[in-house]
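In the current project phase, we have settled on a layout for protein records. A sample record is reproduced below.
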Amino acid sequence: MKNRIVFYILCFIGVLCRFYYQFLIPSFNGDEISLGLNIKQLNYYQLLQPMRRGQSAPPLFLWLQKFISNLPIPNWIGFKLVSFFISILVLIVFLKFIKKKEYNIILLVPFTILLFNPYVIYHSLSLKQYPFDLLGIIVLITYFKSNKFKKAAPFFFLVWSFLSNVAIFACVGLLLFIFISHFYKSLKSLPNRIRVFLRVNYLLILSLFPYIFYFIWFMYQPGASGLKEYMRLYWSGSFMPFDSSFFKYWVFQLHGFWSYFYSMNIILAILLFLLSFNAFFYQLFKKEEIKFKNEIILCFCIFLVHLTLNIFHFYPLSDRLYLYLTIPFILLLASSLIFLVKKSRINSKIVSVTFSVILFSTYLSYISYKENDVKSVYNYIKAKNESSIYLTESTKKAIDNFNSFTDNYFIGNIHMYKLDDSFNKSNYLVSRVYNKMRPNKKHKESVKVLEFLKNNKIVLEVSLGGYNVYRILK
């Protein structure tokens, strides 16, 4: 009873946290703006076809965003609503998963990660399909063993595949998991087992065909070949190489896995990563009972499908695109902690609370992360009683896109001027810097701004979500 109350209180705090970041300090990164402008400017039929600005997303997701954004509310709020409610559903469904595990106190650790990890918060509130990736995986691991879900699975994957690209991986991954678990026991009589497998799961297989037919149609539409080449070039660094850079590629990916899924405190992240995998494989080797074993294996079957597509350059492997992998990694950690408690006989509440507090404390150092946070720049300038700002060329382009997308909702009476050498129109200069989710990381400035700094013409006052605000020295 006490455990349940703790989980529900934390869930409520997590909801408030998401509401605060989504609506009280809103921001849209460049990718969200490019997709959002397509949704605003194109009709429903055009959204089924290749879009402009190098954007692509599942069709039902686009239609849902189009419908919500057309409601009689400020446009930017409409674009925030879908991901907000989906991110709340993520927490609620994971709470259902915890309930099925009888509110095991060790699950406080993965729940803390899901609630407060800035990587999870940022991408699950994004104007992209990533929240649906995460929600679908959590629904799958929560209900895939139930008879009701087995009957509803074809419909579930049919709908999910039009909301999330990960649904395709998940359906094939689930089929792989079912085959390994129930049908593949030896090479003997394998053809007969395959026939039985196909007969039992044919509806699940057929559930992917509507999306496959849509995708084939999509690839024959005007602009599809250009979009395909653009995507391959844009994501070229995320495809697995088979040359001398192979190991460098995987060091980079592993660094992303442990830092994004656990913590940006690298020492802590590596320790948790090693604990998770070492304990799992030790139990596997010793043939001991592994908590959440089926859920973890299912998720990695899905990842195997993703990885296979990546090898053939069909789908990239990058931070925002593997948000769904948060689930197997946090379940691995929970499973390992349960094993640790069992072997050491340490009090499970002490272990759970200690790890949760440590993780949460590391999140505080970068939980304020934002990208393209124009609203905070405006608020800062207004607080200084200024009515104008200088902008570098790239900064003006980024802020103009933001203003156009949000229908000038936030700009107020601020006048913007392109940077010149006179410095007689404003006391402040704003420069765009592309920031990554790294605590205390310095970001590269433009050559022009660095020249002004060198000549003591400006001084940095504050960095705000992808922007440096400089005071001009006169």
Notes: The chain has 20 helices and five strands.
